[in-house]
Amino acid sequence: MAKKAAAFILVSLPVTGHLPVTIELAKRLMNHDRRVKNITILSWRLPFTSPSSSYSDALSRSHPDIDLVDLPEIEDPPPLDLYTRVAEAYIYRAGFLGLMKYLSERHRRVASEFDDRSCHELLSIPGFDRSVPVNVMPPRLFQKDSHEAYVKLAERFKDAKGILVNTFTDLEPHAIDYFSREENYPPVYVVGPVVNLENRPNPNIDPVEHDMIMRWLDEQHESSVVFFCFGSKGVLDSMQVKEIALGLESCGCRFLWSIRTNPMKDVKPYDLLPDGFMGRVTGRGVVCGWAPQVEVLSHKAVGGFVSHCGWNSILESLWFGVPIATWPMYAEQHLNAFTMTKELGLAVELRLDYVSGHGSVVIAEEISRAVRSVMNGGDSRREKVKEMAGLARKALMDGGSSFSAVSTFLRELLAVDPSS
Ligand code: UDP
Q: CB burial class (10 A; 0-12, 13-18, 19+) of residue 326?
């Protein structure tokens, strides 16, 4: 059969964690099939994030056939209806699709947002093995406007020709089994984990701090360091920073703590720490700004990760077999944390119900208890996480489930005559 050439356009969602994954997906599609000759990635920018030029420089050297085009800057958080316009190139986790399907069906029965009073209600969401408590729903589903935007997005999912999900069969078996049997939904291609492991230029990284972190990790014993990092937006108030500092002081563990500060204020991570803190933890802890997270998680000294449970962070920690203590903060992170703790038993529950910006504080005692548990909580969880790391790698090998799903996706997509 003659091989036709194909060009793709991918649209990256205006969220920091999405561009590297979209680039990674583009590379994977090109490496997978020689018919994919050229890929253009359209990328929105948020205020206070740098243009994608740092990525495009590295890309033009390694993959000259992938073009990165900056779209105009938009507000942060992006208007949710923007997502409805790009929903046909969507890549997420399978549990999120279950939530989307549930939302559009619920909307026909109850056309209103979630309610604080029903926090202990249990929901039956497609693809989840267990009933899901209302309080792990994305916090924005409790607000009228954003609830409506989510419902609109959920409705659009049904019109897609196909949906790629960034997960793998052993991680979300129930959701994947559910969607493989569901006839009234677009085909779901399970192509993950799509994780960006190399060429991660990031203008937020201070090169001096980067070298200091990696040198310090080199000096630590295997699996002795707990890593705290709450994604690209996990800005905490000074009261919460103080509780983490107290928790780290009292648990006695070695730690690397990445602190996000408000980009609109000229505050450095050290400015937020309690007086004398660094002196009291000399030698056993490092505080930094933007961390080279993938390099950190891949380092043998790192034995545990206190994470906000962004999906990229979960996939990266699983890839390197590092167990998580869950501290979800916003978006669908609570649902991710629920899956990791209650459904899969892969993570320690630090919190499932914390919502950033709502005035609640996680106290030092809870933090140090969770750190001790993730660092010293016996080998069985660590073994389970390592086993999942092996399964993630297997899924991507030639003949593995995600490798085969990419083949099926490309075969079906390229068989469609664009003129029809
Ligand atoms: N990240 C990083 N250093 C940091 C914070 C985040 O390298 O200090 C990276 C992390 O490795 C991940 C992404 O930023 O790839 C965050 O994505 P995730 O989905 O976990 O969370 P989000 O930022 O979207 O809430």
A: buried
CA dihedral 49, 320, 269, 16 (to 10 degrees): 10
Index of the ligand 1 atom closest to the CA of residue 309: 20
Equal fold, 80-194+408-415 vs 207-377: yes
Q: Tokens at residue 366, please?
A: 């809870």
3-state secondary structure of 386: helix
CATH assignment, 207-377: 3.40.50.2000
Report whether residue 139 contacts ligand 1, using a CB cutoff of 6 Å. no
Q: Cβ(93) to ligand 1 under 6 A?
A: no
290 lines ligand 1 (CB under 6 A): yes
**Domain residue spans in the chain?**
1-77, 80-194+408-415, 207-377
17 C-beta closer than 6 A to ligand 1: yes
pLDDT at 417: 61
Instruction: Determine if ligand 1 sits within 6 Å of the CB of residue 329.
Output: no
Peptide bond into 193 cis (omega under 30): yes
Q: What is the pLDDT of residues 191-240, one digit of tens each?
A: 999 998 886 767 778 899 999 999 999 999 999 999 999 998 888 988 99
Q: Is 166 in the pocket of ligand 1 (CB under 6 A)?
A: no
CA angle 164, 92, 395 (to 5 degrees): 60
Q: Which amino acid is at 67?
A: D
- What does pTM read for this prediction? 0.94
Distance 227 CA to ligand 1 centre (A): 13
Ligand 1 close to Cβ of residue 43 (< 6 A): no
What SS3 state is found at 234?
A: coil
Q: What is the pLDDT of residues 131-178, one digit of tens each?
A: 999 999 999 999 999 999 899 989 988 888 899 999 999 999 999 999
- Residue 413 Cα to ligand 1 middle (Å): 31
Could you tell me which CATH number the domain at 80-194+408-415 has?
3.40.50.2000
pLDDT tens, residue by residue, 293-339: 999 999 999 999 999 999 999 999 999 999 999 999 998 999 999 99
